[in-house]
Each structure stands twice: as C-alpha cells, then as structure tokens.
Amino acid sequence: MRIRFVRIASGTVLVALLGLSACNQGYEVAKVEGTRILVDSVWDAHPDTAMAAMVGEYKHKVDSAMGRVIGTAAMSMDKERPEDLLSNLVADVLRQAASAELGHPADVGLVNLGGLRNVLTAGPITVEDVYEILPFENSLCVLTLKGEHLLELCRNIAVRGGEGVSGLELKISSKGELLDAKVGGKPVEDGRLYTVGTIDYLSEGNDGMTALKEAVKCDCPPGATLRNLFLDYVERQTAEGKPVTSKKEGRIVMVSAE
To answer: Which of 23, 113, 229, 234 is placed for a possible disulfide with 71 were both Cys, Cβ 3.0 to 4.6 Å?
Structure first.
C-alpha cells in the first residue's frame, strides 16, 4: 500500500481529497497539513486593467455614498457587559422606533451585543461607520409580552451577563442570576402586558432570548431595518444641531455573588 502525504490550504480541497481516497483503495491519507494564505496587496500587484476600470466606475459611486458624513459622535462608544454606551444608544433607538409604530411609548428596547460589530468613534459619523457597526439586515419587531414572560426575558439577559436595554432596570449577580427587575422604575407585574422593541433575530428566540417566543403579539413592519433606523436617528440629531451621545445610567448593575 502506498502512502500519500498531502499539504493543503483549503477545507474544500480536503473534502475532495478524502472523497477521492475513499474511491481509490490504493491510497491512504496519512497526514493533512493546512495553512492560511494572507490576502493582501501582493495579490493585486498585476491587476486586470479592464476589470479594474469596470470596478472603478462603481467603486467611486459606492465610496461617495458610504463616505458621506451624516453626523457627529460626542464620544467614542464601545460595547461591554453588563452595560455600555453603544448598546444603550441602539436599544434607545429601537424603543423610540417601537413607540412611533405603536403610537404611544414602548416599555422596553432590546438589542444583543453580538449584533454590534464595531466601535462608534468620537468625531464625524459616516454612512460606512453605521454599516460597520450594524452589518446585518436586522429589522424592527414590536412585541407584546406578559409580565411573567418579560421576567423570563430578564433572566435570559442576566444569564448572558447583560445586553443592550432601554426602559429596563436590572440587578444581576456575577453568577448570572436575576436579582431585581423594573420597568419605568416599577417592579415587573405578572399578567400585565409590556411592549418591547427589538429585532427580528431576537424575536425568534435566538441568542438566548427564548422568552421572546412567548410574545402574545409580534409586529415587524416591512422595511424598518435597524441600520436605517439608526441612520435616520443620526440625521435627525444633526438636523436639530445635536451630536450623537449616550450615557451609562445603571440600567444593568452586576453585584458579586456571595
């Protein structure tokens, strides 16, 4: 029996080779090695001129649109648990959008930290900045939850050590336990109905937010993507002569477990 040593750089090639080895009884894969190929400017040393010309026409249009300055951030905003500036801001935007959809104030806004993919740095805000922070096609969903299910949602948040919330005041332990939950400064009541502005991804119970699947009502207005809602918010602030700002307010407080 002959032994073949294989060096590969692609998982796809690996699958193909394994498939071929299964058909050819004369060979046996004894060793597999992989590596990463750095894709940098070296690969563009000799670009195709026709392709570059074609892409260049569209690149100019895209760069012009994405580089447009739409506002100013008063401070840099990053994400962290249990509470941070960026997710507080995005949760507020969702809650405001839900309020506009309902025609009255929504109780809660919720966004997962995993959906925020970049930092909002102090200074000019471009369209590209917003796309980098919110790269997914997540849409607004306005949910109605019973109090007991809102409490379960608060437990979901506690287990994860915090998420971006608006309208909620949570006290959680470092072990992921929910110690206290309030909406608008009042304890959450069983049986009472609460409205939550969030994104479609979470409304389906993803990212540990299983309680949202218990909503008695779920309305996801067409075309209301979180990215566009955020862009609109920044532009409204700019039109009013205001910078984009945020603050930590003790929305989620973590205490050491005894």
So the answer is: 234
Phi then psi dihedrals of residue 179, to 5 deg = -100, -30
Is a pLDDT exceeding 50 seen at residue 5?
no
Residues 6+ apart with CB under 8 A from 113: 79, 81, 84, 87, 162, 163, 164
Q: Please state whether beta strands 27-33 and 2-7 pair in parallel, antiparallel, or not at all (unpaired).
A: parallel
Would you state the torsion angle of the CA atoms of residues 205, 210, 215, 219, taken in this order, to the nearest 10 degrees? -20
User: Model confidence over 18-32: pLDDT tens digits?
Assistant: 555 555 567 888 899
Asked if 197 contacts 139 with a C-beta cutoff of 8 angstroms, the reply is no
Instruction: Judge contact between 218 and 55, C-beta under 8 A.
Output: no
| Cα distance from N-terminal residue to C-terminal residue, the chain | 64
| Paired residues of 151 in beta bridges | none
State how far the Cα of 21 lies from the Cα of 18, in Å rounded to an integer: 5
> What pTM, to 2 d.p., does this model score?
0.79
Determine the Cα–Cα distance for residues 214 and 216; give it in Å rounded to an integer: 6
CA–CA gap between residue 226 and residue 115 (Å, rounded): 10
Residue 5 in tokens? 């040593």
Q: Give the number of residues written for the chain.
A: 258
